[in-house]
Amino acid sequence: MLLTGCDPGDMFVVRNIANLVPPCTPEAPPGVSSAIEFAVCNLQVARVIVLGHAHCGGIQALLQPEDSAQRETDFVARWMKIADPVRERVLRDLRHKTHAQQQHACELANILHALDNLLTYPWILRRVENSTLTLHGWYFDIDSGALLAYSPVEREFLPLVCPLDQQHRI
Fold it and tell me: Are 158 and 169 in contact (CB under 8 A)?
């Protein structure tokens, strides 16, 4: 609420490990999918914000799946499979980069992956096409205190400078 200036109750918040959004499939885990459906279809939210952050433990688990291989249930590793395409792309394209650079790239790419997955839900796609719902990808850089927003026009994360109550789309 601090980032947006909203009062308690003004936002419908869904939190999960690594801000993952499963694609709309019959096999999708129902927790996040049902929360998204409720917010978009029942509450008629106007914006969906996928907020990632620096030093994300979920992304660390994504990049080091062997760390959880010895667990009895391995729920985390199964959940993180949603972001396997992100991990594979980053490790392929940035194999020469440091682990910290790969982690940062994964954190940003995962936000975009979640936004793409949101568009696989027919009720979200319809509302986006009708301009009654907007999707936003935000990234909080804990080290610098910067809040960045993805700009589809610039195809990069830029400092968030316009308040949400303005009609700017970035």
Answer: no
Give the gyration radius of the chain's Cα atoms.
16
Residues 23, 117: Cα–Cα separation, whole Å? 5
Q: Name the amino acid, one letter, at 9.
A: G
Task: Please give the backbone phi and psi of residue 141, each rounded to the nearest 5 degrees, phi first.
Answer: -90, 100
With tokens 């694609």, the residue in question is: 23
pLDDT digits (tens, 9 = 90+) for 146-160: 899 999 999 999 988
For 144, the token pair is 């610098």
Instruction: Give the architecture-level CATH label for domain 17-159.
Output: 3-Layer(aba) Sandwich (3.40)
* Tokens describing residue 100: 């910290």
* Range scoring the smallest mean pLDDT among 12-26, 32-46, 148-162: 148-162
Nearest one of 143, 73, 83 to 109, comparing CA atoms:
83
